[in-house]
Amino acid sequence: MTLKLSEDLLAGKKKVAVWGTGYIGYTSMAAFASRGVSCLGTDINQRTVDQINNGQIPIPNLEYWLGFSPAIFVKAGLIKATTLWKEVLPAEFAIHLICIPTEKGDEPSNVALVDVVRKIAKAERATDPRLVIVESTLTPGATDNVILPEFERAGLQVGVDIEVGVSPRRDWFGTAEKNVYNLPRIVGGTNPATARKMSEVLKIVCSQLFVAEDHRHAELVKSIENAYRHVEITLANQLSRAYPSVNMTQILRLVGTKWNVGTYHPSFGTGGYCIPLSSKYVLQGAENKSALSILQETVKADLEQPLLIAESLAKSGCKSVGILGLAYKADLKVHILSPTLAICRHLRERGVTVGVNDPYYTGEEIAKITGASVFEFPEGLNRFDAIAIVAGHRFYRTISRDELASKLKNAKVVLDNMEEIWADFNLRALGIKYFVAGDRGWLNFFEEEKVAKEVSAFPP
Question: Model pTM greater than 0.85?
Fold first, then answer.
């Protein structure tokens, strides 16, 4: 049965329906299409759908990550998109990939998940049960408490009329080597037969699959692995706050030389869909939340980090701050829980004028999302007496030292999240305080003389 399904997909007899064409959904379509499997993605955004159907990549820099241009597969009819979700309900769509957001703001949310499951439940009945694979991150327990009950309420018997499994994506979109094919992936079905079928389908695009005991265990893996990182990243930030007189970035790099310890870097705070929400997913699904005090404190400390950045800038006497990067990470167009959002809010609350630049967003998008003014790079840098580099986009490296110096005549301080994009320019020689997150005194640079006196206890 399972081999028959994969053979039918490769032969063009069956198709893949993809719910949501963001980072996960679009790259799933591209991966399957590159193997000759026909995919139809459904999305609520007409502009995204039009871009996909015109052979354009709707997300910046994805061609680099994919390693190929999906345009040829659009032309071949293997990649299509629609806003009309009923178009993916015919029986020929044997596989349904759920790739929708499972968060709203800064909290886990099942609203979109419930909507999609109810729509899939309306699909035409077929001889063989449809296979639904959830690629989105789920709150532990969501399959049992949300997905399966919705199918059952629609009169579908799970395992007979429809098959359900969980296989969250792990991709790191900033690195071409960490893509759908290369990264190990977890598979968990509501029964062993479903897990086998999932494995046969996903082997088309994934080189390494690990089968979990069931869907419940597969659900937990994604949230827990990211919660581990959340704790470690937050610890790096707390260490830089606890030891302001040392270069904590250097210390953590040396710590990372030990074979069983990762290398972490202090930052302005975590952002994106995965890391900052991971602890909340685990806490929300826990049978005993009180046992997870570490995660509770991690969430609290992580939320405080952007506030500390804003306070440092405000205490320094800066009246205007220019922020480079609305996105939470370099060369992505993702502003979900970006530190920029909280930094903007806290600065404005302290009477500081804020401007934001991001080459991946239009001025209208930036103004709507942040409520701040918009400025051009590099021309607009002279408007500010402080610059905070949240996302180290490659675009910000295109400026020469002399040009940058001419555009920073009014700047007293530059805070760099962690990319060190202007570290080689020796801005301090120009009278500008330049700090990378984790540097000695980076959060109390307004008291630099005091910090300097403490350095003797921690020589470089």
Answer: yes
